[in-house]
Amino acid sequence: MSRQFTLAVTVVLISTTVQAEVAPQEVAYGEYGAIDTSLSGAPGDPASGAEIMANRGQGNCVACHAVGALDEVPFHGEVGPPLDGVADRWSEAELRGIVANAKMTFPGTIMPAFYKTTGFIRPGDGFSGKAGTEPLEPLLTAQQIEDVVSYLMTLHEN
Amino acid sequence: MRQTLRTGAARVMLGLAGSAALATGAIAQEANLVIDGEIEIVTRAPAPDHMENVSEIVSGWEYRSPETQAVQMDDFENPGMIGVDNARADFSAAMGPDGQSCAACHDNPESLEGARAVYPKWDETKGEVQTLEMQVNECVTERAGAEAWNYTGTRMTEMIALISSVSRGLPVNVAIDGPAQPTWEQGKEIYYTRYGQLELACANCHEDNYDNMIRADHLSQGQINGFPTYRLKNGKLNAVHNRFKGCVRDTRAQTFAPGSPEFVALELYVASRGNGLSVEGPSVRN
């Protein structure tokens, strides 16, 4: 395979991915908050998802949720339910909806929306305390959401 | 957390002991926090009537580690008391064109005993709710004719720590009715508003989730009876409006300014959620 051909294929793949990505304002939530298709247009990477969940600067999911499979990561919180066995309780579409904007599934939940960019009260510029301009950057990118969802789908009981 | 568990265990034992223990009441009210062996601090009390969703109010001291708790039990160990000593010297320092000082009107800091417990409070002359900081600055600018102190600056925060220290052990008792009520209502609305990109209200963490862990932090009720607070985290006395500011910032929101009408209202409301706890400032937290 020539280098030119490889480059061409790569370009096609990238443009396909860009076209398929769903912007935060355009996400179609089901009646109960599920999102049927990948937000990035690509499958998720569970290994990356695990890192995002543990990283304080990214998802930091363990700040509120205990995850047995991530027990090497210190200090799991107890604000939200433990996520062990979550793949048995929810479908991929439901988990995607909950990670993207949990309030579509659980109205009033404390859980922040990780793929929402507008409609906030006094939105800030990150953690600066200064005013931000909507649309803000989402807390996680479309692909990061997919990575987290793909990791959650590995969390079966036993 | 261990302390809370221990307290919890003690309460279970009280429950097992049955009505005899409950009838005396004395055991249940025994102070866990006694400063220098003499100032008894109420760290748990029945919630004031206006609180709809909480039955017991709890000082932030209860949520800290035994090591941190111990620091507050001894004024020689409490680094916040250094600020109190600084302010004690400042109390009689001359300021303004006529060389006025706090002591010129108030004799000594002890004469202000009780003040911390009832602030913020309605000021008839000004026609607004005033925090203790606003009152100090009124004295500094209008009585002494000096430059106003920075609202959350070291000098102000140390003076507030001094004024608090002489009220330690007295119950917080801010008025929420009468002319103060609209400000209190405003503060309540702020308390329940979900700000910022994380869409978090004070209530999400400090009413719905106190006693839960959020990562390595043990969530408290966000009581402010211990302010100013010496935080081990930043090694200084912290003014309550700076703490508010930090919390709002952490919701990825545009904060309010220290001394702003919004934070004054919020301070009145949050203080009222602690009516019945003791004044603790300067407390020690992590």
From TrEMBL, chain A:
Transmembrane segments: none annotated. GO terms for molecular function: electron transfer activity; heme binding; metal ion binding; oxidoreductase activity. SUPFAM superfamilies: Cytochrome c (SSF46626). Pfam families: Cytochrom_C. Keywords: Heme, Iron, Metal-binding, Oxidoreductase, Signal. Residues 1-20 form the signal peptide. Residues 44-156 form the Cytochrome c domain. PROSITE patterns: CYTC. Its EC number is 1.9.3.1. NCBIfam families: thiosulf_SoxX. This is SoxX protein. It comes from Profundibacterium mesophilum KAUST100406-0324.
From TrEMBL, chain B:
Keywords: Electron transport, Heme, Iron, Metal-binding, Periplasm, Signal, Transferase, Transport. The keyword Iron applies. It is found in: Periplasm. The keyword Acyltransferase does not apply. Residues 87-172 form the Cytochrome c domain. Binds 2 heme groups per subunit. The active site is at 247 (cysteine persulfide intermediate). GO terms for cellular component: cytochrome complex; periplasmic space. Heme c 1 binds at residues 102, 105-106, 139. GO terms for molecular function: electron transfer activity; heme binding; metal ion binding; oxidoreductase activity, acting on a sulfur group of donors, cytochrome as acceptor; protein heterodimerization activity; thiosulfate-cyanide sulfurtransferase activity. Substrate binds at residue 243. Its cofactor is heme c; heme. Its EC number is 2.8.5.2. Heterodimer of SoxA and SoxX. NCBIfam families: thiosulf_SoxA. Belongs to the SoxA family. This is SoxAX cytochrome complex subunit A. It comes from Profundibacterium mesophilum KAUST100406-0324.
